Amino acid sequence: MLKPIAAGKNIYNMAAPKKDQTTASPTPPPESGLKFFREILGQDWVVSHLKAAMLAGRLAHAYLFLGPGGVGKASTARALAAALNCAQPGADGDACGTCPSCRRMAAGTHPDFLVISPLEGKTQIHIDVIRELRRLTEYPPLGGGWRVVVIKPAEALTANIVAANALLKTLEEPPPQHLLVLTARGEVDLLPTIVSRCHKLAFAPLPSALIIRELESRRSLSRSQAALVAALSGGSLGRALALDPEELVRQRDQVLSDLDHINRGATSLVLEWAQRLTKNRTDLDNFLLLAQLWYRDLLLAHFQAPAGLLAHQDLLPLLSQARAGSAPAAWFANFAALGEAQRHLQANLNPELTLDILGLRLQRQGTPHDYR
Ligand SMILES: [Zn+2]
Known about the structure:
Helices cover 49% and strands 7% of the residues. It is of the alpha/beta class. The chain has two domains: 37-202, Rossmann fold; 244-365. The protein has a five-stranded parallel sheet, with helices on one face. Helix 4 links the parallel strand 2 and strand 3. Helix 7 (208-218) crosses helix 8 (223-231), helix 8 packs across helix 10 and helix 12 (281-302) packs antiparallel against helix 14 (328-346). The chain is elongated. Bound molecules: zinc ion. Zinc ion binds next to helix 3.
C-alpha cells in the first residue's frame, strides 16, 4: 500500500504572501524598501547597462524587464528609482542610502516611486488605476527628481485592452522626469503595442551556485537542503526562498518510495497510485518535478558528473551505488515519460488517464536499483 502525501501540502510555504498594490497610490507593497544596484545578484549586464544609460542621461522613457519571477526585476526597478532620486549618488551612480530620498525609499514612503499591480485575487489591472496614473503624471514629481512607476506584471494589461490602450498614450508621450518600468515573464503574453514602445532588458535565471550560497547565508540551510531547493527553483531566488526545505525533503522521500513501489508493484497498485495522486494537482505537479530531478541525478551520477552538480547531496552514496547497477536507458525513458506527462497535463488532458499511462510506463521500464 502506498502512503499518500498529505493532501494538498505545497512545497512552497505560505508565509508572507505578497499583497498586491491596489492603486497607484504611493503606499508601498511590503516588499518595498531601499535597494542598491550593488545588491542586485546575478544580473551584472542589466545593472551595468542601466547605470551607464543613467550616467550618460540616455535612459529610455519606458523599460520592459523580461525574465522569470524572483530573479531581481522589481528590485532592479527599486534600485533605479533610488539612484535617480538620490541626493548624493556615488561615482558609479548608485544611491547613497542615507540622504532624505534614500531614507524615504527605505521606509517605503517615497512619493515618486509607485507600484501598480492587480487588486488582490484579480489578474487584470483596473482601468481606473491607469486613469489615476495619467492624472498624476500631469504633475511633476513631488520630490523634484524622477517619478518611477513600476507595472507588474505587465501581463495584467493584456486581458484589459481598455487599460492597455490608456497606458499607450503615457508610453508614447511620457512627461518629463517620468520613467515607466514594466515587468513580465516573456513577450508572448503581452500586447505587441506595449512591447514595441518599451526598451527591453532580459534578466537571466540565476546560477544554481549563487542560489545555494544565498540559501546557506540567508536561511541557514545545510548544503544538501540548499542544493535540493536550488535545483527546483528554476533559477529564481524568490522561488528558492519561498520553498519549504523540510517539506521538500519529506515529499522527495515520498516520491522515491512511490517510484520504488511502482517499479516493483502490481498493475492494480499503480492504478491506485494514479487515482490517489490525481486528487490533488499540487501533489501531482510536485511528484513530476521531484521524480524528474531524481532521474536527472541518476543520469548525472552515471555519466560521472561532478558531485557538486547533483541536487540530492544527502543521497550521494545511493547515487554512486546507482552507477554499479546502472540502467541509463530506463532512466532516460522514465525522465522522458515524466516530461510527456507534464506536457499532457499542461494541455489539459485527462489527469487520471495521463497518470495511469505514466505509472504503467514507469512500471514497465523499472530499474534494478533499489532507491531506499
Ligand atoms: Zn541617497
